[in-house]
Design brief:
The chain is an alpha+beta fold and 451 residues long. It folds into 3 domains: 69 residues, no CATH class; 243 residues, no CATH class; 113 residues, no CATH class. It has 12 helices and 23 strands. The protein has a 6-stranded mixed beta sheet. A 5-stranded antiparallel beta sheet has the order 2-1-3-6-7, with no helix packed on it. Strand 6 and strand 7 form a beta hairpin. Helix 9 packs antiparallel against helix 11 and helix 9 crosses helix 12. It is globular. About 8% of the residues have low confidence.
Length: 451
């Protein structure tokens, strides 16, 4: 039986063995949970996978013999408030109006409200692209999202869950799009409905010393290659999503998370999807996590062990945090040999990426010195004949900050832990970095260039 439950709204752990749930600062907390049921409010800190059973995660609290006990919530949905119902209706009407205006066939349930078991809006577009719009404004349990998503796919439809909350449950369970709209009065025209999340584009980030982020595959240094990032698309409106999903200009993609329970669902262009998958089959959202770990194993990464801390970490970030998604585990282009080939200077075998860092540092110092050399002289400034502009100060500060960052990263490179004489090692590194070409180096078999 589970006695530790995470309250997502307050960010606290509830202890069900205590009458006050372990939080005397919230004296009516248990009554509030009873009186305002939300299927996505409480989460099991023992979330696990065991013999093919995946813990549904979400929980509710009931009293047994006068004591609170937690029970799992696989399915369920909070009834919509009047405001949510009005907004739901307005978004459904708007979706149907825009889709019909684009010439697509539109189907809606009969009557004023949503019909159980049917999508809010079905859009049949070009080339057999058929969308099932699920407008979800009230809290819902993951099992209910999964059921409705499966039903849509069995009917030959691609689900599109429309939400207005960055923590909405469908975000990590099905293809989705997020609008920042809270009232039916805001559903007016194209400009009123910018898309806040759910659509991504593929960016290949260069992993060299000009990038302040360490190599995501190695965890340190740089590999010189390019790593995949899925970045949020800005400047897109809901009208665009309706049209582009129906024409096939946007397609759904699922990317499993290598170190947690959540994955990512997103809308991307077919070109980006093909480049990213490189002919591999798209991962299956329903596949057991053990199978998805195979991709992580190729780069030596391991999945999180499902500990309480890991679950808390997953739950404290928003489902849609609007940050780029590191996809380097699945798509990486190798870098030039100068980053991977070690340089041998005397007794030292120096990693190629550290030599590249030293060369980048030298160029950064020269750039900062050049900026400083073109500033007005102290005499001219003192005499009032010239002054340093704000732009000049900013450029010099940026250049010096880059030098500082590079110096710090070189100093903390893991290679230094393997050397005894650091002074001699620094001299060897400088020597290796001052050779502009490999043509003057000889090679030690199994290592690299040799001086």
């Amino acid at each position: 039986m589970t006695y530790s439950v995470w309250h997502r709204g307050l960010g606290i752990t509830l202890d069900l063995t205590e009458a006050d749930l372990g939080h005397p600062e919230y004296p009516r907390l248990l009554d509030e949970i009873y009186g305002n049921y939300q299927p996505d409010l409480l989460y099991c800190l023992g979330a696990h996978e065991d013999e093919g059973f995946i813990c549904p995660g979400f929980m509710t609290i009931r009293k047994v013999d006068g004591r609170p006990h937690a029970m799992h919530v696989a399915k369920g949905e909070r009834p919509e408030t009047k405001a949510e119902s009005d907004l739901h209706k307005a978004l459904g009407e708007y979706t149907a109006k825009v889709a019909a205006g684009e010439g697509f066939r539109v189907t809606r349930p009969e009557g004023d409200g949503p019909e159980k078991g049917r999508a809010d809006v079905t859009v049949e577009g070009a080339d057999s692209h058929r969308l099932a719009y699920e407008i979800q404004l009230a809290a819902i349990a993951g099992g209910s999202v999964d059921d409705r998503t499966r039903n849509a796919r069995r009917a030959g439809l691609t689900p599109l869950w429309l939400v207005n909350n960055e923590n909405a449950i469908p975000i990590d369970r099905a293809p989705w799009a997020r609008l920042n709209v809270q009232s039916w009065r805001d559903v007016t025209d194209r400009a009123a409905l910018p898309v806040r999340g759910g659509v991504k584009h593929l960016h290949m980030s260069r992993c060299d010393w000009g990038n302040p982020v360490p190599c995501p595959q190695q965890g340190a240094g740089r590999c010189g290659g390019r790593h995949a990032l899925w970045e949020p698309v800005r400047g897109l409106y809901y009208d665009d999503v309706i049209r582009r999903t129906a024409t096939g200009e946007l397609v759904s993609l699922y990317l499993p998370h290598p170190a947690g329970r959540r994955g990512w669902h997103m809308w991307v262009t077919p070109t980006d999807k093909d480049e990213f998958l490189e002919g591999r089959p798209e991962p299956d959202p329903g596949a057991p996590a053990a199978r998805l770990a195979d991709a992580a194993g190729r780069t030596g990464r391991s999945r999180a062990g499902g500990t309480e801390d890991g679950v808390r970490t997953e739950l404290t970030r928003a489902r849609d945090d609007e940050l780029p998604i590191d996809a380097s585990l699945w798509h990486t282009e190798p870098g030039p040999s100068e980053f991977s080939r070690p340089f041998v200077v005397g007794e030292f075998v120096i990693p190629g990426d550290l030599v590249a860092a030293r060369r980048t540092f030298t160029r950064a110092l020269e750039h900062a010195a050049d900026i400083a050399a073109h500033l007005p002289s102290g005499a001219d400034i003192a005499a009032g004949r010239a002054e340093i502009t704000g732009g000049q100060r900013e450029r010099l500060a940026d250049a010096r900050e880059r030098c500082r960052r590079l110096a710090e990263e070189m100093h903390t490179h893991p290679w230094w832990e393997t050397v005894g004489d650091r002074h001699a090692a620094r001299e060897a590194l400088t020597h290796a970095a001052t050779h502009d070409s490999l043509s003057s180096w000889t090679f030690r078999p199994g290592f690299g260039p040799l001086v």
